[in-house]
Amino acid sequence: MATETHGVSREAVGSGTLASSTGVWMLVGLAILLAAPFVLYPVFLMKVLCFALFACAFNLLIGFAGLLSFGHAAFFGGAAYITAHTVKVWGLSPELGILLGAAFSATLGLVFGMLAIRRQGIYFAMITLALAQMIYFMALQLPFTHGEDGIQAVPRGMLFGVIDLTQPLAMYYTVLVVFLFGFIVIWRTVHSPFGQVLKAIRENEPRAISLGYRTDQYKLLAFVLSAALTGLAGGTKAIVFQLATLTDVQWQMSGEVVLMTLLGGMGTLFGPVIGAALVVTLENYLAATNLPVPVVIGTIFVVCVLLFRRGIVGEIIARMRSRRG
Amino acid sequence: MAGDVILETRGLTKEFRGFVAVRDVTLRVRRGSIHALIGPNGAGKTTVFNLLTKFLQPSAGQILFNGRDITAVKPADVARMGIIRSFQISAVFPHLTVLENVRVSLQRPLGNSFHFWRPESGLNRLNGRAMELLEDVGLAGYADLPAAELPYGRKRALEIATTLALEPEMMLLDEPMAGMGHEDIGRIAALIKRVSANRTILMVEHNLSVVSDLSDWITVLARGEVLAEGAYSDVSRHPKVREAYMGSAHA
């Protein structure tokens, strides 16, 4: 018995150092993000941050609730259209436009969620895909979205009426704040009483039901949160690029976010950020070459799945754990 | 109230596309007893469990718990009424720690389970009770280990602690000793006996010596129907039972 108690204390100390190392990594990451626009192009960085938030929001669903959505482009692109339209045509301020975009995605998430959550696994993925395709066709057909052209020349405007977002640095730090807000919301959700139940459902749903949890309601809340944060990312992207187009809402975008999340490490907090940064960087560099981008990215994805299934961050965490043990 | 009967089924039937898995099963479980459901493979024992906990919807028949008809109640709500089941394959949350596994159970009645904006540390006030439950099943020394790393027998003990955390009026245990070594069987049997005080237990079990030691009442199922019921000594002498069950697998 004495040795067992000893085992517990050792374990507790171990998880303590792991937690504090997470804190150190967060500070390092924050420092890099604060300094980055002085070294790299702000527009590139903003693209990374928007996609990082998108991937984190997606990861909340697949990594912590175990739900694979194949329709997240609808939330990303849908919010981009709403933000672009309300800012350009209605003349709303950028912050209101982004909020409306996120609210739209949250509402859409509620509808999608209620329809899809009754089904499991591949059926769930297929329903989300089908619903997202409906949004795609609406984006193609509705007059306000301007079909193939999309909504162009969206003014960045003045944030809260005082910060001029046409300044690249002001825009960058605004995006950084949006990203950090989203990241903190996700971090808090994962480490909350709700997150605890969500993990239990991911691990063993019948058992969670047998303990009296109405699991559909928890999955629905996770879905709505994920959709809302995805909308936050999509709306912000519309302001940054002053653009909302069909690219944001078509099914390839839903696939891309799956790729980013798996590459970085599903179910880890930092994984999707790394995955998004990697994919956006690759796309940027490959765009300048003659290589077919989807083929290269696809190959990397296959290699990743074959060699390190946990994703980059997932593998690092697993190695650190095994070295400790 | 239906006297001292806590759970009752009337004409319980489940058909899967023409195949009748459970036919006209009438079961009366007395309050405070340990009631065993036995029978050869494919007799419909687990199906009966799934019907009782509403993981499956019966094709016909009625289920009454404390005299109340629960035939149309959803599985999570059956659990909330006080019937907690276990599963044939050990049902723990593998990547949560042993302590967290029990805490998930304790957490629900707090009503903060949808609070995604609150820190997890708010759950720490449940740790004391969780440790008590773990001590009760001999797992206190494993509290911070991921449940996946527990040996099989300990996982079953964890499952029982998680179930007990809800203080269920009735526990349904689906083959609690399946796949266990001798030592573990003894320990889990003693545990079941101990926790049966003040509650009712209905269990599916293959190990007949365990059944004969533990249970007050036995129902034998064969091909989805009740073949016999009674105390172990009576049931084991029943000719049909010997033919259908003892005669084959457990001579």
Brief synopsis:
Chain A is mostly helical and 325 residues long. Chain A has helices at residues 2-35, 42-64, 72-88, 94-116, 121-141, 168-190, 193-203, 205-210, 215-241, 251-264, 271-287, 293-307, 311-324, and strands at residues 158-159, 163-164.
Descriptive account of the structure:
The complex is a heterodimer of chains A (325) and B (251). By secondary structure, chain A is an all-alpha fold. Chain A has 13 helices and two strands; from the N terminus they run αααααββαααααααα. A two-stranded antiparallel ribbon of chain A has the order 1-2. In chain A, strand 1 (158-159) and strand 2 form a beta hairpin. In chain A, helix 3 packs antiparallel against helix 4 and helix 3 packs parallel to helix 5. Chain B has 251 residues and is α/β, with parallel strands linked by helices. Chain B has nine helices and ten strands. In chain B, strand 9 (217-222) and strand 10 (225-230) form a beta hairpin. In chain B, helix 3 runs parallel beside helix 5 and helix 5 packs parallel to helix 6 (182-195). The N and C termini of chain B lie far apart (41 Å). The mean pLDDT of chain B is 88. Chain A binds chain B through residues 1, 4-5, 7-8, 11-12, 15, 188-189, 191-197, 199-200, 203-204, 206-215, 217-218, 221, 225, and chain B through 53, 55, 74-77, 79-80, 84-87, 91-96, 100, 103-105, 107-108, 110, 112-120, 122-123, 140-145, 162, 166.
Key attributes of the depicted protein:
heterodimer; A: 325 residues; mainly alpha; 13 helices; 75% helix; disordered N terminus; B: 251 residues; alpha/beta; Rossmann fold; 2 domains; 6-stranded mixed sheet; 9 helices; globular
Order of strands across the main sheet of chain A = 1-2
Number of helices of chain A: 13
User: Which band does the percent of strand residues of chain B land in?
Assistant: 15-25%
CATH superfamily of the largest domain in chain B: P-loop containing nucleotide triphosphate hydrolases
What is the helix fraction of residues of chain A, given as a range? over 70%
